[in-house]
């Protein structure tokens, strides 16, 4: 199978796999999957705790991103499967219902579907169905969360029943990553779309069908007998239970109400492990970081940003916020990910050097350096930990401003902040980090503009060759260490926890969505 | 809300009113209270819309997610009418409500009334169960501690009720989960079983959340009823009843309880409304699909249409319970049919 391979010869297939998944805890399985445990058995049910109900309806255009941190990701994957997915072991986008996705020039892409795909209503899952779905996402009236991706198409052309030619408005060799991350990955039956019933009665070609739903309580899915990858799925039924509170999800697992759950914090994962649950953590690069507004006098001064980097000890922050349970944060790219480079470690804490930089600025300005650190309520503890550490510096006055949940994001977007915090974790720098550092882009709330960085990110985006991308991101690391657009504090690795005596062959894709078609129940 | 002249328990009605005058009095009271609902509803709905509007965040940005451009967010704001002034949006909303149209959720497109009615059984059941649990404890405990005021049991009850009053519901809920779900494995930690699916399972799933709600209520109600009972037990007619040789339980239940119940009825009426509107924390902690969780999720998504619908509903329930409380006074004390406002 040829996939994501440029006909010009750039061999993405040669991408070497770098292990991603952490095994940082005793009950953890290695890699992205549970230990092999004999031939799968069909039948049985699994009840799984997720962080909430779906955010809109079951219509792919109303589901948000393909992420395990929200119910939308799991629900969309159960109902619609997916054209492609990102393997967190390699960060490589691999085909699922697509057979291949190729491009010579990064602008014109050819999507080839598997033969004989059918929706659960018996209609054909073909290139015309993909085209119809994608055109829907671009419709402003539908307010799709994937409209940004759908708007990047200049044209869509059905070449034959299984082939769709996609012409992008701009060159983007990382287009498959956008396809994997957003709801354009989920294709619904055109018949159901035309009937207008998709929101409550979804019809896809995924491994499961929606049987019943009690909003905010449970969603029951049953096996799709027409699933393309027989004999999968093995389970007869998957029940998703939206439980917003992480501790209560763990409690529900402890009382046997759940067979597995999503845990968003490392602390919850550790607690789950202590309860005897298996833990699978997905290593994501980046994480919870202090971001600087380059357009403000203080935070725009590189000496200030470097001083912050040198003054803050991540180990102490981790101790204060997550009892030291978090993964290490000495580099932007997490260990065991494709672009990890130990040599690119952030400078070690050095209070004397930080003090020297602050003193230099204070002398220039004729007084102490003041700034405000804007955090949301969820990160108040983090803000306090940082404030405590910075109190060791003279001539520096940090005010901690704690705002309600959404306010910091709004103020970041409008540029109304000096220093703030955001949780920004990714399997790959594209597309999110690329947009964050792109001058003039709406997502560049840092107001960062460094032509050297722009060129580096473009280089990383414009090739599929892993070595060329590695070279680009080594340069990225250098510039980050020099410019300090952010100070990374904590990694935010989503975790999947499950009762190993009940569920077998757990593996995940993206940031922790379970491959439910592969899971089976022991003793069925 | 009630405008009652508190009767002295010793006073007796001058003359028993006829059934017709009783019905007329109740009718007058109902009309007055129903008229009061309108300004109350306008006030609370406008206040809630204002608050949702003032909270940071943009529903359009939330709906479109991270792949949207600012232009797309602005277009959706316009499409949803979010770019228009608050007063205009409120006026339109009121006009729709007057026609019985609560609107549709911005996010899920579900009719708001359907969303409320879908979740109402859960919240109503919780509130009623909590109230029943509270009353099962309140009446015997208050009677006993008032009768033995100052005794060891009374002092112990005072300490316990003070502790319960000062404990926030989320802490009570977490403690109950720890003891009854995690340690004893007697009840589920989260989740809801529909009564139609499994009546026993339904009671098991509702027990801990209802108890978490009941504990705070029963503490307040016990203290109030105990105080009123102690005052009543000092009255001459109680002494007279005792002098007739009536058994203590009979004196307490038949003579003391009724004239001591005014504050209890007032608070119970209000607390039922509070339980319905205030099950937010308990429903979130126990992951129950009730009105409280609908409200929380809608606030987080800035789904103002749903928030408004829930607020209107809770306000109507609250005012209706107030009216019922007033009507109940007329049954408890016939004098209020004449003197009640």
From TrEMBL, chain A:
Topology in membrane: Lipid-anchor
Bilayer-spanning residue ranges? none
The segment annotated Disordered runs over: 29-50
Q: Where is the signal peptide?
A: 1-23
Q: Tell me which GO cellular component terms the UniProt record holds.
A: ATP-binding cassette (ABC) transporter complex; periplasmic space
Instruction: Fetch the InterPro entries from UniProt.
Output: Peptide/Ni-bd, SBP_5, SBP_5_CS, SBP_5_dom
| Gene Ontology biological-process annotations | peptide transport
Q: Where does the record place the Solute-binding protein family domain?
A: 92-431
User: What would be an example GO MF term here?
Assistant: peptide transmembrane transporter activity
Query: Mostly located where?
Result: membrane
Places the protein is found = Cell membrane
One Pfam entry name: SBP_bac_5
Instruction: Say if the entry is tagged with keyword Signal.
Output: yes
Q: What protein family is recorded? A: Belongs to the bacterial solute-binding protein 5 family.
Protein name stated in the entry? Peptide/nickel transport system substrate-binding protein
Biological source species? Pseudonocardia oroxyli
Automatic annotation (TrEMBL), chain B:
Q: Where does the protein end up?
A: Cell membrane
Residue ranges of the region described as Disordered = 1-22
Topology versus the membrane: Multi-pass membrane protein
Q: Tell me yes or no: is Transmembrane among this UniProt entry's keywords.
A: yes
Q: Which residue ranges does UniProt annotate as crossing the membrane?
A: 34-52, 126-147, 159-186, 262-286, 306-332
Q: Which UniProt keywords apply?
A: Cell membrane, Membrane, Transmembrane, Transmembrane helix, Transport
Q: Report the InterPro entries cross-referenced here.
A: BPD_transp_1_N, MetI-like, MetI-like_sf
User: Mind telling me which Gene3D superfamilies this protein's record contains?
Assistant: MetI-like (1.10.3720.10)
Cite a single GO BP annotation. transmembrane transport
State the Pfam families in the record. BPD_transp_1, BPD_transp_1_N
Span of domain ABC transmembrane type-1: 120-329
- Would you name any one GO CC term? plasma membrane
The answer to whether UniProt assigns keyword Protein biosynthesis to this entry is no
Family, similarity comment: Belongs to the binding-protein-dependent transport system permease family.
Q: What is this protein called?
A: Peptide/nickel transport system permease protein
Q: Source species, please?
A: Pseudonocardia oroxyli
